[in-house]
Write a structure and sequence with these properties.
The complex is a heterodimer of chains A (about 220) and B (about 100). Chain A is mainly α. Helix content of chain A is about 80%, strand content about 0%. By secondary structure, chain B is mostly helical. Chain B contains 3 helices and no strands. The chains are: A mainly alpha (about 220), B mainly alpha (about 100).
C-alpha cells in the first residue's frame, strides 16, 4: 500500500481492518458471540428454575405471590424505557449528535438507577418479611422447605441480573466520557452500538424473569 | 460510512409502545385462571417481546447473515440445554426427590 493511501485512513479505523464498515461488523459480531455465552449463562439458571418449579409447583406459586407485583411491573416498564433511551442514544451517535447522545446516555443511566433503587427496596422488604432463605426464614408450614428454593432462585437470578445492570451502568459512564471527549463520531459509533447490545440483552433477561418470578402464582387467588 | 441502517426513530417509539402494551397484557392474563396455559401464555408474550427487542432495538433485522447465524445459534444451544435436561427430569419418578 502506498503511503499516500495510508494517509487518508479515517482516524478511528484500526489498521487491521479494510474499512470502517468491516470494523463495525467485526465489533458487532464479537459482541453477539459474547452474548451467546451470556444466554447460556442465564440459561442454566432458567433451567434450574424450570426443573424445581415442575417439582414444587404449588410452593413456587405461593412464593411468587409474596413478591410485589406492582413494583415488578413498574420496574419492567422502567427497563423497557431505558432500552428505548438506549436505542435513541445509538441513533443520535449514528447521526453524530453529540449532545443528544450524551443526554440519552444519562437518561439510560438514570432509568437503570431507578430500576436498581426499586430492586433494592424490594430486597429490603424481603429481609423485613423474613423471606430470605436461611435460619430466620418464615413461611406457611406446608411450603416452608420448598418456598426457600423459590426465594433462593429469586435472589440468585435477580441478583445476577442486578450485577449485569451495575456493569451496564459502568459501561454507560465510560461511553458518556467518550462522547464528551469527542471519541464517538458518526463514522465511529461502534462502542455505543455494542454497549447498546449489552444493555438490551440485560433488558431481555428481565423480560423473562418478570413473568417467571412475579406472575406464575397469581391466577385463581 | 454506510448510513442505510439508520432507522427512523418512529420505529423505536412504536416498538416501545408495543412492549409496554405486552407488559400490561401479560399482567392482566396472569390473573385469569387458564390452568397450565397461564405459563404458556406468559412465556409466549415474553418470547414475543424478546424477539421485538432483538430484531429492532438490537438491529438484527438489518444485520448481516453471519449475525443471524450467531443469534440463532444462541437459541439453538439454549434449546439443547433446556430440552435434553427436561427430557431427563420430567420423565423420572417424582418420588425420588420427595
Amino acid at each position: 500500500m502506498l503511503p499516500e493511501t495510508a494517509h487518508h485512513h479515517p482516524p478511528a479505523l484500526a489498521h487491521h481492518f479494510d474499512d470502517l464498515g468491516q470494523q463495525h461488523e467485526a465489533a458487532t459480531l464479537g459482541m453477539w458471540v459474547f452474548l451467546v455465552t451470556e444466554v447460556l449463562f442465564f440459561g442454566g439458571l432458567f433451567l434450574v428454575y424450570s426443573v424445581y418449579r415442575s417439582l414444587y409447583t404449588d410452593a413456587f406459586a405461593a412464593g411468587s405471590r409474596e413478591l410485589d407485583l406492582t413494583l415488578g411491573a413498574i420496574n419492567t416498564a422502567v427497563l423497557i424505557s431505558s432500552s428505548l433511551t438506549m436505542a435513541l442514544a445509538v441513533h443520535a451517535a449514528q447521526l453524530g449528535h453529540r449532545r443528544v447522545l450524551m443526554l440519552f446516555l444519562v437518561a439510560t443511566m438514570a432509568l437503570g438507577g431507578v430500576f436498581l433503587g426499586i430492586k433494592g427496596y424490594e430486597y429490603y422488604t424481603k429481609f423485613v418479611e423474613h423471606h430470605v432463605p436461611g435460619p430466620s426464614f418464615q413461611f406457611e408450614r406446608e411450603f416452608f422447605r420448598h418456598a426457600q428454593i423459590f426465594f433462593s432462585l429469586y435472589f440468585l437470578m435477580t441478583g445476577l441480573h442486578a450485577v449485569h445492570m451495575i456493569i451496564g451502568f459502568g459501561i454507560m459512564a465510560v461511553m458518556l466520557l467518550w462522547a464528551w471527549k469527542g471519541t464517538i463520531t458518526a463514522e465511529y459509533y461502534s462502542p455505543i452500538e455494542i454497549s447498546g447490545l449489552y444493555w438490551h440483552f440485560v433488558d431481555i433477561v428481565w423480560i423473562f424473569l418478570f413473568p417467571l418470578l412475579y406472575l406464575i402464582g397469581r391466577h385463581g387467588h | 460510512m454506510d448510513t442505510s441502517h439508520i432507522l427512523p426513530t418512529r420505529i423505536y417509539y412504536t416498538i416501545f409502545a408495543i412492549l409496554l402494551l405486552c407488559t400490561y397484557l401479560t399482567v392482566q392474563i396472569a390473573f385469569v385462571d387458564l390452568g397450565r396455559l397461564n405459563a404458556v401464555a406468559a412465556l409466549t408474550i415474553a418470547v414475543f417481546k424478546a424477539v421485538l427487542v432483538v430484531l429492532f432495538f438490537m438491529h438484527v433485522r438489518y444485520s448481516t447473515r453471519l449475525t443471524w447465524v450467531v443469534v440463532i445459534a444462541a437459541v439453538f444451544w439454549l434449546m439443547i440445554l433446556l430440552a435434553l435436561t427436561a427430557g431427563d427430569y420430567l420423565t423420572r419418578w417424582r418420588g425420588t426427590y420427595g
